[in-house]
Specification:
Elements lengths: L1 H14 L5 H15 L6 E3 L7 E5 L4 E6 L9 H87 L1 E7 L4 E4 L1 H6 L10 H7 L2 H15 L4 E9 L2 E13 L5 E10 L1 H25 L1
Antiparallel strand pairs: 1-3, 2-3, 4-5, 4-8, 6-7, 7-8
Amino acid sequence: MKNLSNYLFLLLANLSQQQNKEQVIRLFVEGVDSLLPDFKLKWSNHEDGNLQIPVSTRKNTFGYISYSMDAIKNNEHVFVLMQNAVQMLAVILERLQQEDLLKNKKENLESKVIIQNKVLKKQNEEYQALNEEYKTLNEELLKAKDQAEASHSQLEYAQRIAHIGSWFLDLETNELTWTDEEYRLFNLPIGSEISNSKFNDFIIDEDKSLVEAGFEKLLHGETYDVAFRIKVANEIKWIYESGKADFDENNEAISITGVSYDITKLKMAEMEQHAANEELIATTDALSE
């Protein structure tokens, strides 16, 4: 009996080092059967109605070991040892099952980590590419901004020297935008609020119809060229404006862009020349009499 207990202990100790469930079952049945051939041990995955010992724990049943009834009649103590050994077998199988589950979870987790790392690597590469593209675009925008600011400064300087202003009227919002020189032409603080209505207030009454007619031509695709007078700080100025309209796909005017010239000196010169001509004609007529 003592030798049997030692043998079973050594067998189970050896089985606890194995990593394969099928191999553990085979070695257990072969080992016990070689020591107790009268028991005629057989492994089964299912109950078959014969005498069987379930190989189970509280959580799992792994199979059944059948045995011969005749073998236990005079070997009850041996049968108890075998039952205990079967119980230990169930514990070993459950440990292997848990290890397999953990191994599978680990492999699945490692697989997910590898996939996630690949995704993150790809996303990082895409981010780096987008970042480089953004940096390049930003540099181009800054360069374009510098060029635009330089061009704007040059335009403002040229307009100031030539006394030429420019303006933009958004017909959808009725928002009017002026350049600095346009403000100077009307003696207004640069950047102050301006509107189409306020612009019309500067035009002397006699010339308002000329401007209105010019705007009507613009809305129908014709050119806008008109000279009119404005009253600024009790001073009369002559302004010449030229503009063009932009149209949408429905041929509806959506905006107007134009320029304004201060032609006061030119008009004064024309008036002086006209007056001189009138005086010359009068003098000539008097002499001829």
